[in-house]
Design goal:
730 residues, alpha/beta, Methane Monooxygenase Hydroxylase, Chain G, domain 1, polyphosphate kinase like, Endonuclease, Chain A, 8-stranded mixed beta sheet, 19 helices, 22% strand
Length: 730
């Protein structure tokens, strides 16, 4: 077996999906960390729940499809889809058990100690509270509910994806009219036997239009009480089925396959086809059932049979279903002392507000580091371009934008002002499809030229090109970034951006948009590397170049920061470089299929994951290159989908001052001792051993540095401008 073969051996890799479960465990460890403010811990627990939902709807669903199709090809770690599902079942049940032990044993007692009583069961209400809750039900909840009974004349209802429901077994009151009797010996769907005759199944959806957290008047000074909406409905369920006795009632929730499958070659109109598929998401195959622990076996059997759920996919939960409600609890007023102090993104020192942004970019490239620095310059860049009479054209890619996007408004304004506006809207941005369809229609209405990308490829690159007429001819201004053009998430995700008017990058930007709108591939690129055709080869070349340097005894070092690492060719190249003696430091937030500490293969590789207050989202790549170091940033992770099935852009950071700033970001994360988890040779992650180390939280440190830079900048400006007011005649 040759060396090459050795580096792609399945034993050298971790399964992608199992690696993701380890990431969700790292997020969960933040919810369990007693040094973190209590309400921040609620938020992290909520995030683990929404992460798990999405993971089931997409990744688990996809594996189930493969098993149904009898697809047996193993993944890079040598596991078949069936084997992956078996392992994932153990891992996800373990995560759910940890989530609820964290909630019940740690967070609930702490909340109570801090003045917030969560009434877990409606049976725990005092008489006075019960009267209040029942009145609340009759006035606010009852009119919204749609109770549904199942019998011979009414089929089992469609249960929507992710909806919270209460299932009940009901028995007709003797002498009650009821509905549709069942013939002797005949049993329909949704029925169970009982000593007192046939039981029927009934259900009601907990309405998502009503607040799930309901305040209950306090019974003691200094303690606020809340109860969940489903407990109020369960308490009053007999009022919904008046002709029946309620035998039992329990909440349940299902997850459906939400992975869109669209044959783009066949889809006449991509917009319409995606709209159609989104609707189907509500009714995809049920792949996971959550029920309250202790549910009546007869009730569970009816739900399981009707939804065709396999026993391993049932999660019996000791606590409230769907912990994403904790994000709403985080938003309750009056508990700011139990949260992190809110951070305000700081101004970018190189960009003076209210001044001509184009003039400031002409002075030199500008690096943006969000959310430590504000996203406003990116919005202003497009706003100013929309109004500037010298701007001829604006071209932009949009992957995800916020609900009320100022960028969309500026682009529409630009088109109305007669500029050439071309926007690539990625309709296949998962779970943002609906949002993006709305924006696409709005932009088209305003007169923008809207492109829907290349068939079979997602456009994930983040690029804006502004073409401006100036005294010395046409000049192109470009923004390139690692994050989305989303002003809301820019406050929560750590990303980097570059504003430049360098001619070489401007030419490349034009080529990118020509490729997206006209399918014309440039013969060569000046500075950018673009997926799916050129980027992977570029990365492999850069990694192998370091290996060559190491073999020749020259300086060789790779530092790479990304969200996920699971491309086999890239990992094999990293193993080869490590074996050649290259020091490789990886900062990978989420999935990492590479293994560390394998003798002779990955002893020179370290992997750390940073899970903090902000979501790490930036992609930075450093190659020492025998002392002529190169630094790149971009939109792509080291994953097959990014490198082979998406339009992605990698761009260099060449200005020495900016290069130093980017290196400072990498160095800060490499020395983080507070939020870093280190990948061990066992495949598990462990928090940094803090003994004898200086405590360093990279995210907090970057916040302080941004505030200090903004303060110094204000002082400098005040020194420059104050004397002017004393000049005679001014």
């Amino acid at each position: 077996m040759g060396d090459k073969q050795n580096f792609t051996d399945p034993s050298l890799f971790t399964n992608r999906e199992l690696s993701w479960t380890l990431f969700n465990e790292r997020v969960l460890s933040e919810a369990r960390d007693k040094t973190i403010p209590l309400f921040e811990r609620l938020k992290f627990l909520s995030i683990t729940a929404s992460n798990l939902d999405e993971f089931f709807m997409v990744r688990v669903a996809s594996l189930k499809d493969m098993v149904s199709a009898n697809y047996k090809k193993p993944d890079i770690a040598g596991m078949t889809p069936k084997e992956q599902l078996e392992e994932l079942n153990l891992a996800t049940h373990k995560i759910v058990a940890q989530q609820y032990s964290t909630y019940k044993r740690s967070l609930l007692p702490q909340l109570l100690a801090n003045g917030l009583r969560v009434i877990e069961r409606h049976e725990d209400l005092t008489e006075e509270e019960g009267i209040y809750v029942d009145r609340y039900f009759e006035e606010n909840v009852y009119p919204v509910l749609t109770p549904m009974a199942v019998d011979s004349s009414r089929p089992f209802p469609l249960i929507r994806n992710k909806s919270l429901n209460i299932g009940a077994l009901v028995c007709k009151k003797s002498g009650g009219k009821g509905s549709g009797r069942v013939n002797d010996g005949e049993k329909t769907a949704g029925m169970a036997e009982s000593e007192g005759g046939s039981l029927e199944f009934a259900t009601v959806q907990v309405p998502s239009v009503l607040a799930r957290i309901v305040p209950v008047p306090a019974r003691e000074e200094g303690v606020r009480s809340v109860i969940l909406l489903e407990e109020i409905i369960e308490r009053n369920i007999s009022k919904l089925f008046l002709n029946y006795d309620i035998v039992c009632a329990y909440p349940f929730r299902i997850m459906r396959n939400a992975d869109l499958t669209i044959d783009e070659d066949e889809a006449e109109d991509l917009l319409k086809e995606i709209e159609k598929q989104i609707k189907k998401r509500q009714w995809g195959q049920a792949i996971r059932l959550e029920v309250e622990a202790g549910i009546d076996k007869r009730l569970l059997k009816i739900i399981q049979d009707e939804l065709d759920i396999e026993t391993p996919d049932i999660y019996k939960i000791d606590g409230p279903l769907d912990l994403t409600f904790l994000m709403k609890m985080y938003g309750l007023d009056g508990f700011s002392h139990l949260k992190n102090e809110p951070y305000t993104p700081q101004p970018v020192p190189e960009i003076a507000p209210e001044e001509d942004i184009f003039e400031q970019i002409r002075k030199g490239d500008i690096l943006l580091h969000h959310p430590y620095q504000t996203f406003t310059p990116v919005v202003d860049f497009i706003r100013q371009a929309a109004k500037d009479e010298n701007v001829l054209a604006i071209k932009q890619t949009l992957y995800r934008v916020s609900g009320n996007s100022p960028i969309i408004a500026a682009l529409a304004q630009a088109a109305e002002n007669g500029k050439q506006v071309s926007v690539l809207v990625e309709l296949k941005a998962r779970f943002d499809e609906e949002n993006n369809i709305v924006w696409a229609r709005k932009l088209e209405k305003a007169g923008c030229h809207v492109i829907y990308g290349l068939v079979g490829l997602k456009t994930h690159s983040k690029i804006t090109l502004v073409v401006r007429r100036e005294e010395d001819g046409i000049r192109r201004y470009v923004h390139l970034g690692t994050g989305n053009y989303n002003d809301a998430t820019a406050k929560l995700y750590t990303d980097l951006g570059l504003l430049t008017c360098k001619e070489a990058i401007g030419e490349d930007a034009t080529a990118v948009f020509n490729m997206l709108s006209g399918y014309s591939e440039p013969l060569s690129w000046n500075k950018l590397a673009v997926a799916p055709l050129w980027l992977k080869d570029r990365f492999l070349y850069l990694i192998r170049r370091e290996a060559e340097h190491a073999k020749e005894g020259r300086p060789a070092h790779i530092i790479a920061k990304m969200n996920s690492l699971c491309d086999r060719d890239i990992m094999a190249a990293l193993y080869e470089a490590s074996a050649a003696g290259v020091k490789i430091e990886l900062i990978v937030r989420g999935i990492c299929c590479l293994r560390v500490g394998i003798p002779g293969i990955s002893e020179n590789i370290s992997v750390r994951s940073i899970v903090g207050n902000f979501l790490e989202h930036g992609r930075i790549f450093y190659f020492e290159n025998d002392g002529n170091s190169e630094v790149f940033m971009g939109s792509a992770d080291w994953m097959p989908r990014n490198l082979e099935r998406r339009v992605e852009i990698l761009f260099p950071v060449e200005d020495p001052v900016l290069k130093e700033k980017v290196m400072h970001v990498l160095e800060g994360q490499l020395k983080d001792t507070v939020k870093a988890h280190i990948l061990m040779p066992s495949g598990e992650y462990e928090k940094v051993d803090k003994r004898g180390k200086v405590l360093y939280n990279s995210q907090e440190s970057f916040c302080r540095e941004a505030m200090e830079a903004a303060r110094q900048n204000r002082e400098e400006h005040s020194r420059v401008f104050i004397p002017e007011t004393h000049v005679e005649g001014k």
